[in-house]
Design goal:
Layout lengths: L24 H4 L6 E5 L4 H12 L3 E6 L5 H12 L3 E5 L5 H15 L4 E4 L14 H29 L2 E6 L14 H21 L4 E8 L12 H10 L12 H8 L10 E4 L7
Helix pairs in contact: 2-3, 2-8, 4-5, 5-6
The structure holds NADP nicotinamide-adenine-dinucleotide phosphate.
The site of NADP nicotinamide-adenine-dinucleotide phosphate (NAP) has 28 residues, from helix 2.
Length: 278
């Protein structure tokens, strides 16, 4: 709609132009030819995100830290979906390593469209008797690492005038979920949620988008050591009375990564079986 001012002339608007859009909603979700970095890409959630995006046509750079399976998983994705994949060993708490790996991905793939900063550890830290070294390690990976990945990719995105970052936060950034005591993890994930909102405002100036996903309990290696009793307590506090298969997160990451979400930025997508709505 065109507005006019008092003397009938058309005032200069600050309104940004709408992006080109597909009419078909399924086409909006396509990722053909785009390059996506996924940190923690051979982990439980990361691998399923990678599969979801590859199925939609994206080429995938899997970042891992200590996994022995990363190359095999990347080869499986390439074969299953006929896309290009590659693996990079990148400790996300090392800023220089993150910056170099972003450059390497661009050399190898020719472009970068999406950064998914998903790596994280849940080590108990932040309690009165917990070790300071554990606090520092959890913060370095879960919070500093998330920022380093966004920063390195964001510098590329700003030059391009487009690009999009997705963090894996957690419902633990919303609630101090029990019975496990993990104050540092919870605080880092709350920090990631606010980092999402803050960067979304800054990046919007040049066309970048930033969002996060806050999963509830997802059945991956991260909770493999948790006891039966602990999990029973989780289920009793979750309205859907279960944890999730990581495949139940694929669609939300695809939405955020694709042009289906061109007007979504600064959002925190909570996928937690209802845990935090009680
Ligand atoms: P996971 O299977 O244990 O995956 C964790 C991933 O983080 C692994 O791929 C691991 O890579 C990577 N990682 C750990 N330390 C790293 C480091 N220093 N540098 C780079 N990568 C590192 O657990 P997940 O459930 O998929 O977790 C993925 C994300 O979801 C985490 O951020 C977690 O906090 C979040 N989350 C999980 C749940 C849940 O219930 N599962 C709920 C909410 C949020 P390597 O294996 O190569 O070392």
């Amino acid at each position: 709609m065109t507005a006019t001012n008092g003397n009938g002339t058309q005032p200069k608007s600050i309104r940004a132009p709408n992006p080109p859009l597909e009419d078909s909603v399924f086409k909006m979700f396509r990722m053909d030819g785009k390059t996506v970095i996924i940190t923690g890409g051979s982990g439980g959630i990361g691998y399923e995100i990678a599969r979801g995006l590859a199925e939609a046509g994206a080429n995938i750079a899997i970042w891992y830290n200590s996994s022995k399976q990363a190359s095999k998983l990347a080869a499986t994705i390439a074969k299953d979906f006929n896309v290009k994949t590659a693996v990079y060993q990148v400790p996300v708490e090392n800023h220089d390593a993150v910056e170099s790996a972003v450059e390497k991905v661009i050399q190898d793939f020719g472009r970068l469209d999406v950064m998914i900063a998903n790596a994280g550890i849940p080590t108990k830290a932040g309690g009165l008797d917990d070790k300071i070294e554990d606090w520092n390690r959890v913060r370095a990976i879960d919070f500093d690492g998330a920022y380093y990945c966004a920063r390195a990719a964001g510098q590329v995105f700003r030059k391009q005038g487009y690009g999009n970052c997705i963090f894996t936060a957690s419902m633990s950034g919303h609630a101090a979920n029990v019975p496990q005591e993990q104050a540092c993890y919870n605080a880092c994930k709350a920090g990631v949620i606010h980092l999402t909102k803050s960067l979304a405002v800054e990046w919007a100036k040049w066309g970048g988008r930033v969002n996060c996903v806050s999963p509830g309990y997802i059945d991956t290696a991260i909770s493999a050591d948790c006891t039966f009793e602990m999990k029973e307590e989780w289920f009793s506090l979750t309205p859907l009375k279960r944890d999730a298969d990581p495949r139940e997160l694929k669609a939300i990451y695809l939405y955020l990564a694709s042009d289906a979400s061109t007007y979504t930025t600064g959002s925190d997508m909570v996928v937690d079986g209802g845990y935090t709505c009680r």
